[in-house]
Amino acid sequence: MEMQTMQTSPSTQIVNVGGFDIGGPQFTVIAGPCSIESYDQFLETAKGVKASGAHILRGGIWKMRTSSKAFQGLGSSSFDFIKAVCKETNMTLISEVTDARQIEEIYDMVSCFQVGSRNMHNYSLLKELGMQKKPVMLKRGFAALIEEWVKAAEYITAGGNPNVILCERGIRTFETATRNTLDINAVAFAKRNTHLPVIVDPSHAVGIRALVPDLAYAAAAVGADGIIVEVHPRPAEALSDGMQALTLNDFKVMMNKLERILTAVDKPLHKELVYAN
Amino acid sequence: MEMQTMQTSPSTQIVNVGGFDIGGPQFTVIAGPCSIESYDQFLETAKGVKASGAHILRGGIWKMRTSSKAFQGLGSSSFDFIKAVCKETNMTLISEVTDARQIEEIYDMVSCFQVGSRNMHNYSLLKELGMQKKPVMLKRGFAALIEEWVKAAEYITAGGNPNVILCERGIRTFETATRNTLDINAVAFAKRNTHLPVIVDPSHAVGIRALVPDLAYAAAAVGADGIIVEVHPRPAEALSDGMQALTLNDFKVMMNKLERILTAVDKPLHKELVYAN
Amino acid sequence: MEMQTMQTSPSTQIVNVGGFDIGGPQFTVIAGPCSIESYDQFLETAKGVKASGAHILRGGIWKMRTSSKAFQGLGSSSFDFIKAVCKETNMTLISEVTDARQIEEIYDMVSCFQVGSRNMHNYSLLKELGMQKKPVMLKRGFAALIEEWVKAAEYITAGGNPNVILCERGIRTFETATRNTLDINAVAFAKRNTHLPVIVDPSHAVGIRALVPDLAYAAAAVGADGIIVEVHPRPAEALSDGMQALTLNDFKVMMNKLERILTAVDKPLHKELVYAN
Amino acid sequence: MEMQTMQTSPSTQIVNVGGFDIGGPQFTVIAGPCSIESYDQFLETAKGVKASGAHILRGGIWKMRTSSKAFQGLGSSSFDFIKAVCKETNMTLISEVTDARQIEEIYDMVSCFQVGSRNMHNYSLLKELGMQKKPVMLKRGFAALIEEWVKAAEYITAGGNPNVILCERGIRTFETATRNTLDINAVAFAKRNTHLPVIVDPSHAVGIRALVPDLAYAAAAVGADGIIVEVHPRPAEALSDGMQALTLNDFKVMMNKLERILTAVDKPLHKELVYAN
């Protein structure tokens, strides 16, 4: 890898999402369902994760699915109740756009746009996001070199939007016992060789509920700036990715141990905000 | 892989592109530059490849580049001369769309749309192409399972467009001596387990000019329905992918040997059309 | 890859195995069962493949199996009948050694030693083979770089044994629809950048009987010096690798088409020898 | 992966190496040079790592090198001084055997045999180790499935030796920015789905000195039973793997932070033994 092509200073860009600085001395936890399925499901999840210390909500509105026959997300029919849940819980939402035309549609609903792994190379989409005033969380392509990931981020920053958060979510390897392979090396590498914040998605990275907390701990210890985790009140009923969603109780237990590790590495959890919206 | 998810009949869908049936008893050769750089470059290439037996032109108008600073293609400024070259040589063009908004722009200029490897998972784009009346050549994602490739094709066919051609262009593996790894197994597998035509892109699959003809021969022998090859009159001056472009003479030499192999496997080259346009 | 570490002349080392030159103007076919299971099974296979034009026999005496509970090969109890079959059919045998201590045991029974994919990095074994007077067929490790494969060959040649044949047998990638991924690029690369003969094992490379002939044709067209193929009179009864073994009739059909392709590329099959032993 | 082929109880086998229980409530640190190069180098390293809290020494006597021309280790000429260093520091040694014939040679010098990544599939060697009375640390093959790794361990345990420690040392993927990719998922998976202790080798897993401590922290947090780390008094002068060796001071700094994380996860470092030998 040509190191000169990457910025070699340690992480210095701090990206504020919904009132929380990502990339600074505190650790950020983003949690919520894979897909937003209903007002009740989203509200119950939001309240539950907030009670255990989550800072920001995640939730899919339009889903990228391998099969055209699989659930594709609720789309615009969910807009009203999503806003209601955010207001009720005083939290903000990070959500994925899968097409440049969706940016405007959800602009007022999100505190941060997410680019999914399968769109990391969608340079048209990245260029549009480079012209926005809101932060972007850029998931690594599941087969992208670290260098390609950093260069994809440059498609956004070159357009005038410096607020990019890198998210490692597992790469595709020969191993099939786990859904993907969390590239923990890449987290350490990106933290020490780019100026951008780096977070980890342990849910997609391993795809097995029982192992998600272990990988969240590893992310905290290796130096990540935060995690984004899938949580569902009743994973067995989830419309997508139920195998890897934590229950609300799993999440609570995980947060306790995570907090101890974060204290040991001097990167404590953010405290709750009074006014997030 | 769940074989029941794939159509198990041998290739039966025949896709006509510019007057040439792809997927039938003849073999199709698509050739041209990586990027369309100028009227002179494109015309010289088109005349040269046609003289050696190529059937359809290829050439990039908008390029997907890892770096935002690299040459991004001529875009709409090239439309007029592209049409002129096609008319002058009586050939049609297959070209990549990287954004749904480009489909309409080049609709009248191409006989077939190309979806690039980095957009195979761009389901928004695939859905748009499913609503068109022109064929689509779907390159396999460089880290896509065969099953995901077939399911991506279903995003197009489900929309009402049955005319999809699969194109294997190399996958990303641990090997770095060659640019990608041509998955020749996948060509054989897709030919025998799907109903769609399958062609091979030896240029991207290996990335080394001297090896491109060898892989074209392998594609012909394994049972592919055609190849798509990069050719440039002066590869050293190419604005993209010069390392893997054949010269016009390389191409001519390759076509001679290819023809002998195709005769041996009873899948001869298409003859020239009188009226392609 | 540092090209200067590899010999850059085209293939010039010709390795004679049982009377057949491998690496010269003719193509060599090695065929036989995965495991040698009985006198009857081995004799029937040997006669069958010879009748269709095979030149050399293959067959495992000690098997490398992932599970310690799987069939491990007949070992020394098969020595007498193996010699009898070779004599009866006037063919020679290539067989795998999995431990340096086996070299002496089968020295008089084989015309060539095989190093399996899982032992490519077993440098102790390679050093011992470097001191022998018989040729060695070195399978590529299933996750070895081409450079590592060539350097493994140097462990043998550095010991004084120049008679090494490289064998590409598929690499491990993310794809699971086929057993391995035949790295056809590596065959072209090794032929043009090393001085050693290169053969292909389509059986292990794809692991699906119906696709084995297609890949043998690709090997012939890409420029390989030969193939090594698994054949079993009744694959359903095979003690190992039955899924990928050709029947005797499959093999016969394959040889007919292979011969036509080899003629087209000016690398015809060897003719039968009068005295192989 | 067929989960039923693997033992599904959590880690219960405790393996005692030189007086330290691996797989129990304490964490074990194994440290030392890649290659044992001289009495002075080995003694200085041993004293240094012990002073910072390491429990067991590592050091290569015979090295597996890709090139036959690279340094192959001191071999038997180092035996006397290795014993002297162990005695002087009251530590024991874990060292790699690359050939079954070496087991007897170093039997009295080591408290644990190491099987390297390139020998994980060397079943002849594993069978021999299954007949020994000393523990075996089995490194995962750099392209081995978790299932193959567990089955390789069964080659040892089936022979009557239950004392196997699994060691994850990075797998080969498409990423080249780091030497290998630490499969942290596999550590979590193996801890929760096998009965064997699992340790991590962060040095080989990432291959970049500055990132080794970060990955050691991740290993501690994910639940590993220990780490094995390369340390050299003057890495720039190392005869092998200098790029990834920690200095004695790096090691000291790492141990301080590691201790804090281990306290947070309730798996403290072993205390020093009075009599190790």
Brief rundown of the structure:
Chain A has 277 residues and is an alpha/beta fold. Chain A has helices spanning 39-51, 79-89, 102-106, 123-129, 146-157, 184-193, 202-206, 212-222, 248-264, and strands at residues 15-17, 20-22, 28-32, 56-58, 93-96, 112-115, 136-139, 164-168, 198-200, 226-230. The longest helix of chain A has 17 residues, at 248-264.
Determine the mean pLDDT of chain A. Answer: 93
Structural class of chain A: alpha/beta
The biggest chain-chain interface is: A-D, 44 and 44 residues
Shape of chain A: globular
Classify the helix fraction of chain A into a percent range. Answer: 25-40%
Oligomer status: homotetramer
Query: How would a textbook summarize the main sheet of chain A?
Result: 8 strands, parallel, barrel
Per CATH, what is the topology of chain A?
Answer: TIM Barrel
SSE arrangement of chain A, N to C: EEEHEHEHEHEHEHEHHEH
Strand order of the largest sheet of chain A: 3-4-5-6-7-8-9-10
Enzyme class (chains A, B, C, D): transferase
GO molecular function, one term (chains A, B, C, D): 3-deoxy-7-phosphoheptulonate synthase activity
Pfam families (chains A, B, C, D): DAHP_synth_1
Keywords (chains A, B, C, D): Transferase
